[in-house]
Design brief:
Blueprint: E1 2-4, E2 11-13, E3 16-23, E4 26-34, H1 36-41, H2 47-52
Antiparallel strand pairs: 1-2, 3-4
Amino acid sequence: MHGVVTATGKPYVLRYVNVLTVQDGRIAYWRDYWSPLQGMEIPGHSPAELVAGS
């Protein structure tokens, strides 16, 4: 995913993985994986803030 943080105008890229299982032409299972630490960096937070409980 990519976009721009509206508050700062800073562009970002957030990588993630989708895992899909299809049965009979329908999605039977959908799971996505992404990094919450990387997600915190998008609006300007430090991953250390999460670890410190801030």
